[in-house]
Amino acid sequence: MNIPIYNALRSYSDSCPTVFHMPGHKLGKGVPLSLLRDLYLMDLTEIPGLDNLYCPNGIIKEAQELAATAFGADKTFFLVNGSTCGIHAAIMSLCNPKDKLIIARDCHKSAVAGMMLSRAVPIYIKPEFNSSFGIPSIVLEKDIEKALIENPDAVGVYITRPNYYGICSDIKSISELVHSYNKVLIVDEAHGAHLKFSKKLPPSSIEYGADICIQSAHKTLPALTQGAYLHVKGNRVDIEKLKFTLSLLGTTSPSYIIMAHLDIARAVMEASGEENINRLLKEVEMLGSALSESDILRVLSVDDINGGEIDRTRVVINVSSTGKTGFEIEKILRNQYNIQVEMSDLYNVVCITTIADTHEDINRLRSAFLETADRSKNANGQGELPKELQIDAFNIPEQRVEPAAIMHRGFIRRKLYDATGCVSRTMITPYPPGIPVICPGEVISEDIVKYVIKVIEAGGVVNGVSSSLEVDVVE
């Protein structure tokens, strides 16, 4: 039958790949087999006895209360449109039009969209940048305080923690600071739903009083894609406005399969999460030690950041000394070893490990990396990538038009290399990780043009740039 999506999905899973990408159930390995059977029998709707996601008073209410207890929240909402829906709702329930929101620039594109939808005015702060790995690092408390002092009318602060590379800013200090100014703290913790379940990992932001915390269960827990949680702590959040906003943004046909697996993920982690995470951490530690013995591979560790913590289940391997980009190494792992990682960039390969991963999975990854490194060394490929590929991609461009106003402006399409000085209509975003280098309404700089072209030439994907290297700019 000509069913291209189904056929492609089955072809991939039937090839028995070793997967270090989301979703966290890893082709079902992280979910008890008895709970995976006959999924279509759970594809139901709001009939009597099955409750209603947007006004729950039965099984969904009970499941959300169980999740709130498990994650340490005062209230938890199930999201079936992914963390994106939760991020939009959090920003829209906090910000009225023209309200200022202090936001770390390493935010996901969904946060930019949330500000456009709410007509909020972003006050960007720049995270630290690790030039060795070419990645954003922690958000400093002093930079947040500077923004709070300069913008006393801001309604809140928004940070991403952990970031895509597993780097965790000092949430305790940040939370105390933000609350000392009587502001609301929103944390995009999409990559940190597992943190609560092991004392050997950085704490969850909800443990230190984040007012709203959004987590993608499907990224690091045994849950299905689009399954996420929105947690609320304390009394600074208007719960009724938040519920109303979620009901506006969420689908009116929420998936009971996704909701059931949000419930399952919580139950699995409560029952055996700590034991399995601690087992996983031992495997990851041995992996890191083995890779670090190679003189051309480097694994991101807490020593590479200043004042933050690392989620050690996130394995970030710098491959720049192989003479190859992360994009090239990713292709080698996929084509020669049937290993699919989460993402790569110019310098690094990023692997998501979860409780579903086994000793055999980790061992295959270790062997593949060491063999690839040895071949690179023997082929005289050793040597750092050219410095012109290195750019602090999170320098904050000039905001010439407010993001929300862009939605009502005319635009033209222009070649990227002719777009320097133009105002972008769209987000220009290397994907993954989905962090915009240009947001709507910002001026496209020459450095950004050069960087984006280098990423594309090196094999990366950049959303917002067409296959013919064109971008939409304001007329």
CATH architecture of the largest domain: 3-Layer(aba) Sandwich
Widest sheet: strand order? 2-11-10-9-7-3-4
Helix proportion of residues, in percent?
25-40%
Strand content: 15-25%
Mean pLDDT: 93
As for the CATH topology of the largest domain, it is: Aspartate Aminotransferase, domain 2
Cofactor: pyridoxal 5'-phosphate
Domain Orn/Lys/Arg decarboxylases family 1 pyridoxal-P attachment site: 4-293
Domain Orn/Lys/Arg decarboxylase C-terminal: 408-454
Protein name: Aminotransferase class V-fold PLP-dependent enzyme
Would you mind describing this structure in some detail?
The chain has three domains: 235 residues, Aspartate Aminotransferase, domain 2, CATH 3.40.640.10; 116 residues, Aspartate Aminotransferase, domain 1 (Alpha-Beta Complex); 78 residues, Ornithine Decarboxylase, Chain A, domain 4. The mean pLDDT is 93. The strands form seven sheets. Strands 2-11-10-9-7-3-4 form a seven-stranded mixed sheet, with helices on both faces. Strands 12-14-17-16 form a four-stranded antiparallel sheet. A two-stranded parallel sheet has the order 1-15. With 475 residues, the chain is an alpha/beta fold. It contains twelve helices and 21 strands. Helix 3 packs parallel to helix 4, helix 3 crosses helix 8 and helix 10 packs across helix 11. The N and C termini lie far apart (47 Å).
Identify the notable features of this structure and list them briefly.
475 residues, alpha/beta, Aspartate Aminotransferase, domain 2, Aspartate Aminotransferase, domain 1, Ornithine Decarboxylase, Chain A, domain 4, 3 domains, PyrdxlP-dep_Trfase, pyridoxal phosphate, transferase, Aminotransferase class V-fold PLP-dependent enzyme, PyrdxlP-dep_Trfase_major
